[in-house]
User: Which sequence fits this backbone?
């Protein structure tokens, strides 16, 4: 499945961009929320994302790169995204936050930075609908893919299978038509692609090539 990141979209005509990727066959609309504290960048708040939700015909996949996760979950939950994901590196009480997200009727996901091992979430894996593996250091689009995420995804898939779970694996950062095939071969279910999709003259061709 493909979730284009709107971080790479043209914000001057965001409505058209969202409609275009949905019409082009994406599965989710990936929304990167950055607060300028957890990562050295700031992006968008619920007012803009609410506008995105109104025109998107595919579910939202909200990725929080923030401090104070609970505050941001409460802020974005009314938009009823499919997923809300938060970084394990920033959360002292992940189990509590997972239950809060579930209480909103939203699927919880945890994000692992490139240096964070899958073993860090072994004891809460059964509570998650998805795990997002960062294949770049979070904060900016257009970065180069970190190859070690391939082996990391393989290990995570083994953990999921050993526990008999159906937890999805998503990878975000530097994804293109060349590494997407290898990611799929090790068990990745969803790829986030911003620059690769939005820099292509045909969003449909870009999404199709990833699928």
Assistant:
């Amino acid at each position: 499945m493909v979730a284009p990141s709107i971080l790479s979209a043209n914000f001057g005509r965001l409505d058209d961009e969202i409609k275009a990727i949905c019409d082009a066959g994406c599965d989710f609309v990936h929304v990167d929320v950055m607060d300028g504290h957890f990562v050295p960048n700031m992006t968008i708040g619920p007012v803009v994302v609410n506008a995105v939700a109104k025109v998107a015909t595919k579910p939202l996949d909200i990725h929080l790169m923030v401090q104070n996760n609970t505050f941001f979950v409460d802020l974005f939950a009314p938009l009823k995204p499919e997923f809300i994901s938060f970084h394990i590196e920033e959360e002292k009480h992940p189990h509590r936050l997972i239950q809060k997200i579930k209480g909103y009727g939203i699927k919880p996901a945890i994000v692992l930075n490139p240096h964070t091992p899958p073993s860090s979430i072994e004891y809460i894996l059964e509570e998650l609908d998805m795990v997002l593996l960062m294949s770049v250091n979070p904060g900016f689009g257009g970065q180069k893919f970190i190859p070690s995420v391939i082996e990391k995804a393989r290990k995570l898939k083994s953990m999921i299978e050993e526990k008999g779970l159906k937890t999805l694996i998503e990878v975000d950062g530097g994804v293109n038509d060349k590494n997407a095939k290898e990611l799929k071969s090790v068990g990745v279910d969803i790829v986030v692609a911003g620059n690769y999709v939005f820099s292509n003259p045909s969003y449909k061709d870009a999404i199709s090539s990833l699928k």
Summary: The mean pLDDT is 94.
